[in-house]
Design goal:
By secondary structure, the chain is α+β, with helices and mostly antiparallel strands. The protein is built from 5 helices and 6 strands; from the N terminus they run H-H-E-H-E-H-E-E-H-E-E. It has a 6-stranded antiparallel beta sheet with strand order 3-4-2-5-1-6. It is rod-shaped, with a radius of gyration of 58 Å. About 10% of the residues have low confidence.
Length: about 230
C-alpha cells in the first residue's frame, strides 16, 4: 500500500511539473512582422461585411472659378441697308438726300441704269387696210385730235397714234374721247433705258421706317418713291 501511495504521489508531482513548464516556460515566440505586407488590407469575413453598414466616401464637386478679368463679348447691333428712290435726275436725288440728312440719316448717293417709264401711249390698232387707216385719221382730226398720225404697222395690222402722255389719267381721258367716235383704243406704257438715282441708308435695328414725305418732286409723285433692301 505504501508503495502504491508513493507511486501516485510521484505521478501527481510529475504532472504538476509538466503543467508549470507548459504554461510558463514553453511559450511560443511572436512571429516577426513582414513590413512588405503591412500595407495590405485586413481580410474580412463575409459575415463581418454584412454586419457592418455600408458607407460611401463623399465626393465634393470641384468648382472651376472664373478667370479674373474675363468679360462676356457683346455682339454689336446688326445694321441693315435700305435704298430710297428712284429719282429721275441728280437734282432730285441731291434735294432728297439733303432732306434725309436733316432728319438724322447719313445718305449715300448711287446711280444705276434701268428701264424707266416714258409715258402712256394711246393708239388705234388692228386697222386692216390703208382705207381704214385714212378714215380713222380723218375722223380724229375732225373731232379736234390734231396730234393723231399713222405709225408703222404691227403684226395685228395698221396703227394710228392718238397721243403720248406722261400721266395715265390724261391718257385715259384721251382714250374715252376716241371711244365716243366709235373706235376701240389701247393704252400701253412706254419704257426706255435711262439712268436713275438711289439714296442708300444704313439703319440700326432700333431705327424706325424711313420717312419719304417731301422727297419726290411734283412731276415725279410721292407714290413712286420706294424703300427697299440695298442691292
Amino acid at each position: 500500500m505504501r508503495a502504491v501511495r508513493i507511486a501516485i504521489i510521484s505521478l501527481l508531482f510529475v504532472n504538476l511539473v509538466f503543467m508549470a513548464w507548459a504554461h510558463f516556460i514553453d511559450v511560443p515566440a511572436e512571429p516577426a512582422v513582414n513590413q512588405a505586407d503591412a500595407h495590405l488590407p485586413r481580410l474580412v469575413l463575409a459575415s463581418e461585411v454584412h454586419s457592418q453598414p455600408a458607407t460611401a466616401p463623399a465626393v465634393a464637386a470641384a468648382s472651376v472659378p472664373a478667370s479674373e478679368g474675363s468679360t462676356a463679348t457683346e455682339t454689336p447691333a446688326a445694321k441693315r441697308c435700305v435704298s430710297v428712290g428712284p429719282f429721275n435726275d441728280v437734282t432730285q436725288e441731291t434735294r432728297a438726300a439733303s432732306l434725309l440728312q436733316e432728319r438724322g440719316f447719313a445718305p449715300q448717293q448711287r446711280s444705276e441704269t434701268a428701264d424707266v417709264r416714258d409715258g402712256y401711249w394711246v393708239y388705234l390698232g388692228g386697222l386692216k387696210s390703208a382705207a381704214d387707216e385714212a378714215r380713222a385719221l380723218r375722223s380724229l382730226q375732225e373731232a379736234g385730235i390734231t396730234d393723231a398720225h399713222a405709225v408703222p404697222a404691227a403684226d395685228d395690222g395698221r396703227r394710228v397714234s392718238v397721243g403720248l402722255f406722261t400721266e395715265r389719267p390724261r391718257a385715259e381721258r384721251r382714250a374715252r374721247a376716241v371711244q365716243h367716235l366709235g373706235f376701240s383704243p389701247d393704252i400701253v406704257e412706254r419704257r426706255r433705258p435711262s439712268t436713275i438715282y438711289w439714296i442708300d441708308l444704313d439703319l440700326g435695328t432700333s431705327d424706325a421706317a424711313v420717312p419719304t414725305e417731301g422727297l419726290a418732286s411734283a412731276d415725279q409723285g410721292e407714290s413712286r418713291i420706294q424703300v427697299r433692301v440695298c442691292p
